[in-house]
Amino acid sequence: MTTVGRPAGDAFALPEERVEGRDKVTGAARYTADVHWPGTLWAAFARSPLPHARVARVDVTRARELPGVRAIVTGADVRPARLGRRLQDWPVLAWDRVRFVGDRVAAVAADTLAQAEAAAAAVEVDYEDLPLLLDPQGALAADAPILHPDRDEHHYFGGVRPPVPHPNVQGHRVHEHGDVVAAFAGAARVFEHAFDLPRTHPAALEPHGALVRVDGDVVHVVTTNKAPFALRTQLAASLGIPEERIVVDAGHIGGDFGGKGLSIDEFALVFLARAAGRPVKAVTRYADELQATSCRHAARITVRTAVDGDGRFLAHEARVLLDGGAYAAGKPVAAVLPGDALFTLAGYRVPAARVEAMTVYTNTVPAGHARAPGQPQNSFAVESHLDLIALEMGIDPLELRLRNALRPGDVDVLGERCAASQAVPVIETLRREARWDAPRTSGRGRGHGMAVGVRHVGRGTASMTLRLAADGSVEAVTAVPDQGGGAHTMIQRVIAAELGVPLERVRIARQTTAGAPHDPGVGGSRVTPVHGSAALDAARRLRALAVELSGRDAPFAELAAALAGRDVTVTGEHTGKGEDHGVCAYAVDVEVDEATGQIRILDVTLVADVGTVINPVALRGQLEGGFVFGLGQALMEELRVEDGRVVEPNLHAYKLPTIADVPPLRVVLVGDGGGPGPFGAKSVGELSNSAVGPAIANAVADATGARVMTMPMTAEKVLWAMRRA
């Protein structure tokens, strides 16, 4: 990858060394699967083979008699405990009905994993089939069976659950601003298109896992969850345990991509650990990871846009229908939707809009959050839609976007007034760097396409404690785990830059929920802007206190030496509202084999709005990784479900891109240091993946004259589209 430009201050120009890097490359880093307490048992689960059925009988008699079995719990033992991040609608173990293939009906603890699995297989369950709902639209029918007749028993964090228009709806929101009807009536042209997006899986290298022990009245949890305080709150609500009696430890996390915010195992393990009187451990097999843990929502998105004679947007309507699967437990936002479900025509001026989004219960694998939740689906639909408008109106696709890009003072698709946006500089930079206006021949198998991506920057409140050590160094205490994004390195660099001390004089002390200030964890594009700003606030407070205690103003190193041995501790805090946003844009050159439909990507240019760069190497890794993540979803990834069952629950059949699939990629950074994070930083971890799919789709359409309206864009779909065209 080639990177052009690096808008970083001198303080961040030092060679970057990851705080946890040495432990990872030497094998010293301990992940959840590596932790083992004395006497630890292994857990396994009896799972439903049916997508929807009444649980008539669960018999564990034969399973209890098998060698090594120490405890078995069933739905009757855990009722009414449910789990979930915002809406707790997922029974820890099913007690009356199962709602998808893989739903758990019993949990076993045994001396070895093989013994636990044998006992789980010996659990006898009688099922009575119930009507299936496999399609969101069908689930909304007036006479559709209700998948959660007990919905009034579900615990909702944050007050009263928002109303929904149908009992099978998980979450629903409508946004409207401006006079939509009048704008459509007076438009020069109106365009409407519909797009279908499949389920995909985050596919982190490390699967979910947990280890639980109960010491007296205190529950200790080691977890792969990236938000330990949030998990503590969920466990407390589900199990009726005060939060102060739950200690959650999130150590090294082997990848996330949005999927490590939902925990399932930990809840059942508490019951097993109590029953067995010993610690219990679970590590999910990948077959179960794909069949029964949080995936990205499948979606049907219909968009309709009114334009004037020059292609400027007058009004926009959208309906985003999302398949939420059997449970809504994986979604943390108040509306019980993927975070950006309403953010359709993102990054553009929209004087009038009506956008409706809803998630619907079906008897399929539960859907939750994945990298930039909701945005890849919306981006594919809208950015493809814009190219179709440009083609019909005879306007260059880049020019159409430039005419409509958000500028200060404009109103966006959600009715928010834009204070600042880098959309215009990003698109203009792409025009120059990708040589967009250079003569080229479209069609005959070669094409050029582009797309714009937008992601909000930083929501949530984070806290961080700094302590002055006896040797004059600074210790940063946080519960934030590092799931591969470089959070601890960023925190170290922010504190060192603010205090003017060498990096090695700042140590990161990751603690459990019992030893660190409250924190929302990783997610929501908050790490650099929110956690970084909390670190900056703490550093400023520490310096101010050091000046006060020493009675003089001097470089921090001198103040620290003068205060050696004294207890100097401060806590910083920052709240991010997510009002700012980052922008990126892609230009993609492709070659399509007109005999087979096979796509070959020849060249990619990515322009990214990044603000001040704090971790240069991590920034490059996030932008590269985001592109490859989007590439997989664009061309090969699909979690196919037939009759409620995941068809290919393994990573041999669920195709992921490898380095051999990655084309030449050139990255150009744009940033004026105006971001909301420390020193003007923004976040990029969820910025660069959403626009990859539509950029490729637009290039394929340019090459072939055929439009693929769904991802992934396999050779078969492209060939079929060419034949239709």
Question: Which range best describes the helical content: under 10%, 10-25%, 25-40%, 40-55%, 55-70% or over 70%?
Answer: 25-40%
The percentage of residues in β strands lies in: 25-35%
Question: What is the name of the CATH architecture of the largest domain?
Answer: 2-Layer Sandwich
Q: Determine the mean pLDDT.
A: 94
Radius of gyration: 26 Å
Structurally, the number of domains stands at 4
Provide the CATH superfamily of the largest domain: Aldehyde oxidase/xanthine dehydrogenase, molybdopterin binding domain
The low-confidence parts are 1-9
The name of the CATH topology of the largest domain is Aldehyde Oxidoreductase, domain 4
What general outline do the C-alpha atoms trace?
globular
Number of helices, where a helix is a run of at least 4 consecutive DSSP H or I residues: 18
- Distance between the terminal alpha carbons, to the nearest Å? 35 Å
Total E-strand runs: 30
- Give me the oligomer status: single chain
- At the first level of CATH, the class of the largest domain is Alpha Beta
Structural class: alpha+beta
The profile of the biggest β sheet is: 7 strands, mixed
Strand order of the largest sheet: 4-9-2-17-14-15-16
Question: Can you put this structure into words, describing what you see?
Answer:
The chain has 725 residues and is α+β, with helices and mostly antiparallel strands. It has four domains: 41-131 and 203-292, Aldehyde oxidase/xanthine dehydrogenase, a/b hammerhead (Aldehyde Oxidoreductase, domain 3, Alpha-Beta Complex), CATH 3.90.1170; 141-202 and 299-419, Aldehyde oxidase/xanthine dehydrogenase, molybdopterin binding domain (Aldehyde Oxidoreductase, domain 4), CATH 3.30.365; 422-427 and 581-725, Aldehyde oxidase/xanthine dehydrogenase, molybdopterin binding domain (Aldehyde Oxidoreductase, domain 4), CATH 3.30.365.10; 458-577, 2-Layer Sandwich (Aldehyde Oxidoreductase, domain 4). It has a seven-stranded mixed sheet, with helices on both faces. A five-stranded mixed sheet has the order 1-30-27-26-21, with helices on both faces. A five-stranded mixed sheet has the order 12-20-19-18-13. A hairpin with a 2-residue loop joins strand 28 and strand 29. The protein is globular.
